[in-house]
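A quick aside before the break. I want you to see a complete sequence-to-structure record at least once, exactly as it would be stored in a machine-readable document. Don't worry about memorizing anything.
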Amino acid sequence: MRLPRTDRGRLALVLVLAAAVTAFTATVPLLRDWFDLRVYHGTVDSWIHEGGRIYDYRVPGTTYGFTYPPFAAVVMLPMALVDLSVAIAVALLLNLVGLAFVLYVLAGGHWRRHGWYGWALAGCALALFEPLRDTFSFGQVNILLLALVLLDCRLLATGRGRWAGVGIGLAAAIKLTPAAFIGLLLVARRWRTAAVASAVAAAATALAAWVAPDASRFYWTHAMWDTTRVGRLDYVSNQSLQGVLARLGVTDRVVWAVVVVLVLGVWAARTRRAVAAGDWTAAFALTGLAACLVSPITWVHHLVWLLPSFAVLVRAGHPRVAGALYAVLCTSVVWLWFDDASGVDGFLGSNIYTWITLGLLLRLPVGQSCSGRSTPLPRSTSEVAPAPIPAAPAIAQASAQPAPATPPAPPRGPTSAATGSVTGPGLGLARKASSDPTGSTRPAAANPQSSSSPASS
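That is the input. The structure line, written in tokens, reads:
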């Protein structure tokens, strides 16, 4: 099949694809009715206008409540000034802006060459990506956290690391998963950036403790350690390694701890290689993959952290692999095993998103660039000067001349790798509606924060 080459044909194709994507998203997936956003809005509204406690609130008619650190509730305080419909509109706008920034960072300096046609096709493909669909439909914050983290990635990749760390720190204070990127900074020996990120996270947490001391005490001493407040480990939406073990009936935490240590060892080794090559996009992609795998609970909508990995695959010259994996993540296929994940088919199918994440962690290309051009990072101490060439020709080539027909060997020093954008197609399969309104919030623990709880006194 040939793609149209005229603007009129391209516009017609984009309109057809947009109509198909709209029909798909309106009829096939289980839409989430902004459930998590209703949790956020109801929590801050009850806290401010009714004197309620953050972790006491439940959506009327359900047992679902707030599960994030207290600073997240502080950030969401403006919701108390508007009704739910306005909050939904603002959340949609913020998520769209966040997604646009994520694409800008992942596309690197080549974003202009794609034009309106390329970005329109990318928009259609992204609308099919299940983690993004759920993020928008739940009213979740995942894409905004990814944007904050990738802001620091861009600063580091462009040699402006002195300003990096703030985005990671804020993201880690809002939700625990992005704290893994502080570990990346430590592995990369970016001590100053790690200190900035840690200081920002600590300052934000301290601010929340000042604003809501009882809620902060309850969260950090009880709620944080109680995974039952978030959801069942064996729920099919949990695409972490802990979820795989839970669906197998393995409840021994020692087994999970051993698996986590092995995954972190692979992550550290591969991340060091990426950082040594100056490939910050790959380093951040690997960290997002590892965070999804080792977290006790990784709902499907958390897998927006896989987006940088697809950009790395495209950049490294593997668009077909990226497209195939991306297509699987558009199908909602794991929900076919919602009722029963037993047997070999259940083991393979219900965990397929986990297998994709693990495969990317093991095989994601690092330190590669399709353009064959690189820019050394400043202040590097590991760059090795090339050995002198004996019997050099009388007339040396100017550095501005084009590269020879045979590609040169990769540079030995760190490089700032170019990145690509994701335009992989997706396929949709109807999935069975879950009996739960959301995969991100589950029944609260037996001892929720309340006026009679010792933790909230």
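Two observations worth writing down. Residues 375 and 416 are 5 Å apart (CA to CA). The two ends are 67 Å apart (CA to CA). We'll return to this after the break.
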